[in-house]
């Protein structure tokens, strides 16, 4: 079976700002409807097992580790108002949803990928997000990342080509170059090429010679901790829980509330053969 893991928070942002640029800027739940439409498209394309990770809140345990880590400050109120309705709408559609509070959606995706890949019945796990953090979860051709911006599917060789390091060193790479989206700066004077060169030469930051990072070693190790995704987030016990069996009786009402009534008949039709 093929497992599809979707970054629900990214999809919500993508549809929200896409709608603002298009003709649906005034639709109060337009981004929710857009994400539901994306999931239906995946089902129409043959997907059978889908899980969606969301950030129920923006803050996580990482905010306790580093004061500068990202928060919900600055999120458009119209976007924030759609976070929780998205979770309810996906549940009504019959899709497995993991709203994260202590962890982040990325941790849920990493945890789900790790669990799914351990099941011998699973042929491949696809993580649908462009977030570079998730590149660390890629394993050969078994766990791949689908970049929602470019449409590229990256296996381990693709990650190596893009970043210059293997998937298992992505957290080291991000620790050195920083991640502005997550709020940590990386190590001064180290760019992408230098980071890849150092990792290729020495391996993980923990085994860098002391003179490579000097006084910045402590910061680098902290940033690596921030960049390293957890695999113990609460997601599912068995991949069978991800099989889509159709929408609930409540989906028609929920779809009407978020302006996605056109998806009701599609979802019901797709459910006939499930």
Give a written overview of the molecule.
The protein has two domains: 2-158 and 230-271, 3-Layer(aba) Sandwich (Rossmann fold), CATH 3.40.50; 163-227, DNA polymerase, domain 1 (Orthogonal Bundle). The chain is 44% helix and 11% strand. It contains 13 helices and six strands. The chain has a six-stranded mixed beta sheet, with helices on both faces. The mean pLDDT is 95.
Instruction: Report the total helices.
Output: 13
Amino-to-carboxy terminus distance = 14 Å
Major sheet summary line:
6 strands, mixed
Supply the helix-strand structural class. Answer: alpha/beta
Give a count of the beta strands, DSSP E runs of length 2 or more. 6
- Domain tally: 2
CATH overall fold name of the largest domain = Rossmann fold
* Overall body shape: globular
Spell out the CATH superfamily of the largest domain: 5'-nuclease
Whole-number mean pLDDT: 95
Question: Stretches where pLDDT falls below 50 for ≥5 residues?
Answer: none
As a percent range, the share of helical residues equals 40-55%
Rg from alpha-carbon coordinates = 19 Å
Order of the strands making up the biggest sheet: 3-2-1-4-5-6
Taken in chain order, the helices and strands follow as EHHEHHHEHEEEHHHHHHH
Strand portion: 5-15%
| CATH architecture designation of the largest domain | 3-Layer(aba) Sandwich
What is the CATH domain class of the largest domain? Answer: Alpha Beta
């Amino acid at each position: 079976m093929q497992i599809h893991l979707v970054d629900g928070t990214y999809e919500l942002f993508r549809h929200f700002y896409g709608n603002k640029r298009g003709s649906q800027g005034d639709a109060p739940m337009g981004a929710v409807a857009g994400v539901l439409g994306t999931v239906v498209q995946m089902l129409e394309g043959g997907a059978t097992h889908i899980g969606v990770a969301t950030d129920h809140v923006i803050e996580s345990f990482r905010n306790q580790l580093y004061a500068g880590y990202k928060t919900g400050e600055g999120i458009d109120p119209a976007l924030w108002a759609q976070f929780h309705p998205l979770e309810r709408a996906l549940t009504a559609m019959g899709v497995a949803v993991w709203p994260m509070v202590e962890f982040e959606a990325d941790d849920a995706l990493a945890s789900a990928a790790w669990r799914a890949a351990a099941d011998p019945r699973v042929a491949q796990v696809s993580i649908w997000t462009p977030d570079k953090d998730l590149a660390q979860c890629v394993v050969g051709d078994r766990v791949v990342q689908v970049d929602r911006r470019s449409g590229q599917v990256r296996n381990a060789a693709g990650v190596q080509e893009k970043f210059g390091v293997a998937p298992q060193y992505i957290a080291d790479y991000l620790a050195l170059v920083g991640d502005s989206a997550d709020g940590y700066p990386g190590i001064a004077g180290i760019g992408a090429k230098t980071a890849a060169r150092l990792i290729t030469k020495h391996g993980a930051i923990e085994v860098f010679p002391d003179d490579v990072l000097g006084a910045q070693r402590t910061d680098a190790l902290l940033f690596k901790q921030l960049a390293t995704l957890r695999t113990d987030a609460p997601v599912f016990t068995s991949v069978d829980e991800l099989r889509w069996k159709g929408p609930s009786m409540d989906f028609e009402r929920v779809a009407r509330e978020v302006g996605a009534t056109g998806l009701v008949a599609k979802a019901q039709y797709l459910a006939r053969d499930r």
